[in-house]
Amino acid sequence: MVRALASSWFRVGVWTVLLGLFLMTAMIGVYRGISQHDEVMFYSTLPVDVRMEYQHLQEEGKLGSDRAILIRAHYDSAHGPRSIYFWIGCLLVLTMSLGGGAAWYVRRLWGRPLQSLSEAATRIAQGDYSVRAQSAIQGELAHLATNFNVMAAHLERLEVERKDTIAGISHELRTPLTILRGRLHALCDGVIPSSLAELHKLLEHTEHLVRLVEDINTVTLGEGNRLSLHRSEVDLQEFLLSWMPVYSSRLDEEGVHLVLDLQPIKLMIDTDRLRQVMTNLVENVLRYAATGGVLEVGIHREADMAVLQVADRGPGFPEVALGRIFDAFYRVDHSRSRALGGTGLGLAVVQTLVHQHGGHIQVHNREGGGAEFLIYLPLV
């Protein structure tokens, strides 16, 4: 940007100098023409004897003599002060007018956009991310203003996300902490009896808090690319076959039928993190799937990627929710998900862990009903 401005100022300076030289040359030409005209007028006004004397002095090369200067001063003064100083003054006035016009043009072309950028940067530094810089008509400044406004919009979006995240964390922490505090006060005051069942309830709320803090930590580390992974070569089919029995009893309780469509595919993955991904996805299915539903888990190849499919035949997601389903603390059904023990971070954690493995995740509603998650992971 500095080079662009320097180049622009240089071009303006060059054109100003060239225009000044052109005007000066034109003024000199005009002055010479007027001087020749004045010379003719000067000779025509001389008396005959004085004219012959002046011509004689001119032929002898004595126009610098006292007599010639005296004749010139006496007879030429009657025809106005057309001296070199007069024309120099005219040239100076013209040059000053030209300089003022150039300064006004440069200020209008660059001054206003630069002032707008400066004011916008100051307001952004003060925390007002809604401000936008005035776009220049064209050129480098227009490109700079556009990039500045894109940056401001990005900062504004980040600020909104930051506030939403803080509000979400505060809200999620407040509920279990309020319950814990209330029941602990009741235990201390003897309002409710101390029992093993009561302690189990308190433990459940504590574990919910621990899961919430761990999920927040995972998402935060992932966004800063500081999440450590312990990769090893794993057959994805063998991994899922060994992991799915953990959910057999849970699936039976919920009346959900498991359908597997697997094939041997080797990946370099962190098994603990992949287990966390599968747990969050399956919990999401169980949380929203109706009794007697179906959970489908499949693996297949697409080019140089392994595709892990997790789908159900439930109600699916509202179309307006699909674009935000992986946002932290976003809930499709606020009251229902909280009542079922969700933290609002499960799918955000899934996306973070998939990205850390060099993959990506998609979600869409199936035509026959239900939602389908597709996880793309690079092959070994």
Q: What is the beta-strand fraction?
A: 5-15%
Strand order within the widest beta sheet: 2-4-5-7-6
Quaternary state reads single chain
Low-confidence stretches: 78-82, 335-340
Instruction: Tally the helices.
Output: 12
Sheet with the most strands, sense and barrel status = 5 strands, mixed
Q: How many structural domains can be distinguished in the coordinates?
A: 2
The CATH first-level class of the largest domain comes to Alpha Beta
* N-to-C series of helices and strands: HHHHHHEHHEEHEEHHHEE
Number of strands: 7
User: In CATH terms, what is the architecture of the largest domain?
Assistant: 2-Layer Sandwich
In CATH, the topology of the largest domain is named Heat Shock Protein 90
Radius of gyration based on Cα positions: 43 Å
Overall pLDDT score: 78
Shape: elongated
Helix % is 55-70%
End-to-end C-alpha gap = 45 Å
CATH superfamily of the largest domain: Histidine kinase-like ATPase, C-terminal domain
User: What is the SS-derived class?
Assistant: alpha+beta
Description:
The protein has helices at 2-45, 48-59, 66-76, 84-125, 140-189, 196-223, 236-243, 248-254, 271-288, 319-322, 334-339, 346-356; strands at 232-235, 257-261, 266-269, 294-302, 305-312, 360-365, 371-378. It has 380 residues and is α+β, with helices and mostly antiparallel strands. It has 2 domains: 2-141, no CATH class; 232-378, 2-Layer Sandwich (Heat Shock Protein 90). The strands form 2 sheets. A 5-stranded mixed beta sheet has the order 2-4-5-7-6. Helix 4 (84-125) packs parallel to helix 5 (140-189), helix 5 packs antiparallel against helix 6 (196-223) and helix 9 (271-288) packs antiparallel against helix 12.
